[in-house]
Amino acid sequence: MKNVISSADLSRKEIEGIFASADKFKKGTAKTSLKGKIVALAFFEPSTRTYNSFDAAAKKLGAEVIGFKSDIDTSITKGESFADTIRIISSYADCVVIRHKFDGAARFATQVTQKPVINAGDGKHEHPTQSLIDLYTVKTVFGRVDGLVYGIVGDLKYGRAAHSLIYTLTKFKPKRVHMVAPKHLRVEKEALSSIGYEYDEVDDIMDVANDVDVLYVTRIQKERFADELEYEKLKGSYKVDNGVVNALKSNAIIMHPLPRVNEIDREVDKSSKARYFEQAANGVPVRMALLDSILGGKNE
Ligand code: NCD
C-alpha cells in the first residue's frame, strides 16, 4: 500500500490487517517504531480530529511531524501553487497527509511527489481513513463488520465521510444498507452504480430505526453549498433525539464522524448507544496502524 487516496486503494485484506494492528496499538502490545521518520501534515482546510489524531499517531510511533493546519500559514498566501507547496513539503518528509477543499487534490498531489500520499479529506469526494476508523469501531463493538444492517444518515450528496463509508462497505458483506437523506441530499446516482450490497434510499430515520444495527449520522456540509439559501432550507431536516434512540434495537449503536452541529441532540450523549466519542478516540490507534503499514515501522 503506497497511496491512500480513495477507498478503492485498500483491499479487504489490508483493511483487516490495519484493524488487527490497531488492536495492538490500543492494547499497547505493538513494538514497532517510526523513529527517524517525518510525517508531513498539509491541511489546507480546517480540521480538529483528523489533524490531531494523525499528529498524535505519528508522535506515539516516535516519528516527527511537520506541516500546517491552515493555508494561511503557508506561501499559498504569497501566490505559491498547491503543486509547489506539496513538492516542497514532501521533500522534507517520508509521507504527506493532505486535506483540501477541492475534490481530487490528493490524487493530484501523487503526480508531483514520489512520497506516499494519504487523503485526509478532499472536498466532497472521499475521506478513506475516516471509514477505517468507522468500521474499526463497528468491529470493536460487534466483533464483525459483515452481516449487519447499516443506516447512513444525512448529507449523502456532499459528505465525503459518508461516501467513503458507502464505498468501503463494498469490500464487506453488510446485510443491508439504508441510505437515509432528504431528497436534495441523496447520493449521486453514479456513486451507487458499483455497489454490490443490498441497499435502499429513504427520507426518514424512523422508517429504518428498528432495523439498523449501526446508525451512522452525518452533518449537512454547509461549506459545500453554492447557495446559502439551499442550506437554510435543509438545515434541521433530520435529527436524532431520544425518540429515535428509543426506536432503535437495544444493541444498536449511533455513530458520527463529528463535528456534530445539531443533528444529534445532546441528550443522546448519555445513551449507551452513543459511540461517537469512542469512534473519535479510535482515530489514534487506526492512524498509527496506517502510518506504520505505509512507512514500514521497525521493531524496536
Ligand atoms: C469529517 C470531514 O472532515 O469530512 N470530519 C472528520 O474528519 N471527522 C466530517 C465532517 O466534516 O462533517
Can you walk me through this structure?
The longest helix has 16 residues, at 12-27. The mean pLDDT is 95. Helix 2 packs across helix 11 (283-295). This protein has 300 residues and is α/β, with parallel strands linked by helices. The chain has a five-stranded parallel β-sheet, with no helix packed on it. The chain has eleven helices and eleven strands. It has helices at 12-27, 49-60, 82-91, 105-109, 128-142, 160-168, 189-192, 228-234, 242-247, 276-281, 283-295; strands at 32-33, 38-43, 64-68, 95-100, 117-122, 149-153, 176-180, 199-202, 214-217, 253-255, 298-299. The protein is 34% helix and 16% strand. Helix 7 links the parallel strand 7 and strand 8 (199-202). The chain is globular. It binds N-carbamoyl-L-aspartate (NCD). N-carbamoyl-L-aspartate is lined by residues 49-50, 121, 127, 130, 160-161, 218-219, 257-259.
Proportion of strand residues? 15-25%
Low-pLDDT parts are: none
Average pLDDT: 95
Overall geometric form? globular
Supply Rg: 19 Å
Structural class: alpha/beta
Order of helices and strands: HEEHEHEHEHEHEHEEHHEHHE
Q: Ends: how far apart?
A: 22 Å
Strand order of the largest sheet: 8-7-6-9-10
Counting copies of identical and different chains, the oligomeric state is: single chain
* Total beta-strand segments: 11
Helix content: 25-40%
